[in-house]
Amino acid sequence: MAEQPLFRRVALIGIGLIGSSMALAMRRHGLAGEIVCAARSEATRATALRLGLVDAAHATAAEAAKGADLIVLATPIGAFGRIAEEIGPVVEAGAIVTDVGSVKAMVLREVGPHLPLNVHLVPGHPVAGTEHSGPEAGFAELFENRWCILTPPEDGDAAALDKVSRLWAAMGAKVEVMTAQHHDLVLAITSHVPHLIAYNIVGTASDLETVTQSEVIKYSAGGFRDFTRIAASDPTMWRDIFLNNREAVLEMLGRFVEDLTALQRAIRWGEGDTLFDLFTRTRAIRRSIVDAGQETPAADFGRRVPGSAE
Fold first, then answer.
1. Which of 186, 188, 208, 233 is 20 to 30 Å from 58 by CA-CA measure?
2. What is the pLDDT of residues 75-86, one digit of tens each?
3. Res 249: pLDDT
């Protein structure tokens, strides 16, 4: 007898990079009996069906959520509250609601109050992605050897947490559980502030009057190319992240500004030892990330064509 899938019906509310990658991974590993999605754009729904990502595509979250035992919020996080309010009246008893957003305290705050008491909320964040978006950007391997952080509420259902953990593990991810507040602080320094810096430095380069835009493009060194890759990320998603994790981002940004001021002083006064010590410490961090399997040591600097052989 064939093994039963982990979930009978999965509803993906949003079918961008993460949602489409989840659909492909769940299909590959037989984790869902049926997969449906909700997307406001008719073109997006048609694309999801054409690519075989889903069995049905709906115009509203409520339509997709009916009868689902797992509902995944995969839209920009600014829409979570509205979606939770919409699906609350139709979610089945015992169903699990999770998400893939990069801020977690706001999920407990904005989503939880709209769900019935017999529906289980398990906020989640797969720490994986690319600068591309849309249903055509997804690929089943996106989560392999990446971390997925789950931040259940204090009174959350243990069985629901275990089931969501098994889903992510089956899609290739390593699962970590922590509080929502701690997650938001960690991600502020490892993801949110770096993106803010990338957006800012690319914007600064485009605003320089003494350096033309064509020169910025023509003479981009590896570091600037890496910044432009990060700064090419979805604007709506990142606007919502900064607005919903403002306390942690501002705390980490304040620390960064203090350290940047110290670095500025070291350059001004020719403190070579200070610079050398900093660069040595940061080089060790890079090596640790490579050793942990979270990055390749190859120095491609964005030259490799997406989809090409490693």
1. 233
2. 999 999 999 999
3. 93
